[in-house]
Write a structure and sequence with these properties.
Alpha-Beta Plaits, 8 helices, globular, DNA-binding, YebC-like
């Protein structure tokens, strides 16, 4: 199915690299999602999903609660969801998702990050057609065979199931995200190593060493931008 979730290690490294920035990004995403619906995760599935994702990154409950209280308090801050597409070294492909209260600022910062690090911005649709929106759910202590049996009993079709390290990874259609989680919960699973709605490349590329170093600098520059929430790409960094 193309690029697998071989970035569990990347995800863990990101946690260790800058937890305060990760917490800040989740706080904003929770606030924005709560403002767009009910500030109650039990009646707002989108909000419930964001909070579940935040928990896989060990975002403290205090930060989650603070964002929910801010949304309940009637704050008038308004944010736009933006998606940028572009190319890195050697034609590598990148998607950048952002939340911003200043579209011009964010566009300028993203463009600058591309230009200063060997990349260039593309037009809408120039990259995303090579990616598939995918639900990725990871659970420790299970294997692919028993997970397949569990999901078949629950009448849930998925794209793929793989064993990776000590974790089983399920790849499914985005609308099956909650169904897969509920199937795991029915057998006592309460914690998820991965719980993401992501963009997976249909195929990945391997860069020569010099290009990979430049590519990693570009990804770091994009992820360091305050308004950027997610960065997806098609490069195998393993």
């Amino acid at each position: 199915m193309g690029r697998k979730w071989n970035n569990i290690k990347e995800k863990k490294a990101a946690k260790d690299k800058n937890t305060s920035r990760i917490y800040s990004k989740f706080g904003l995403e929770i606030y924005v999602t709560a403002k767009r619906g009910e500030p109650d995760p039990e009646s707002n599935q989108a909000l419930k999903f964001v909070i579940e994702r935040a928990k896989t990154y060990n975002v403290p409950k205090a930060i989650i609660d603070r964002a929910l209280e801010k949304a309940k308090g009637g704050s008038e801050e308004s944010y736009d969801e933006l998606r940028y597409e572009g190319f890195g070294p050697n034609g590598s492909m990148i998607i950048v998702d952002a939340l911003t209260n200043n579209v011009n600022r964010t566009a300028a910062e993203v463009r600058s990050a591309f230009n200063k690090n060997g990349g260039n911005m593309g037009v809408s649709g120039s990259v995303s057609y090579m990616f598939d929106a995918t639900a990725v759910i990871g659970v420790e202590g299970k294997n692919a065979d028993e997970t397949l049996e569990l999901l078949m009993e629950a009448d849930i079709d998925v794209r793929d199931i793989l064993d990776e390290e000590d974790t089983v990874i399920v790849y499914a259609e985005p609308d099956q995200f909650h169904a897969v989680q509920e199937a795991f919960r029915s057998v006592g699973v309460t914690d998820f190593t991965v719980a993401e709605l992501t963009m997976l490349a249909q195929s990945d590329v391997t860069l020569p060493e010099d290009a990979q170093e430049q590519f990693e600098k570009l990804i770091d520059a994009l992820e360091d931008l305050e308004d950027v929430q997610q960065v997806y790409h098609n490069v195998d960094l393993g």
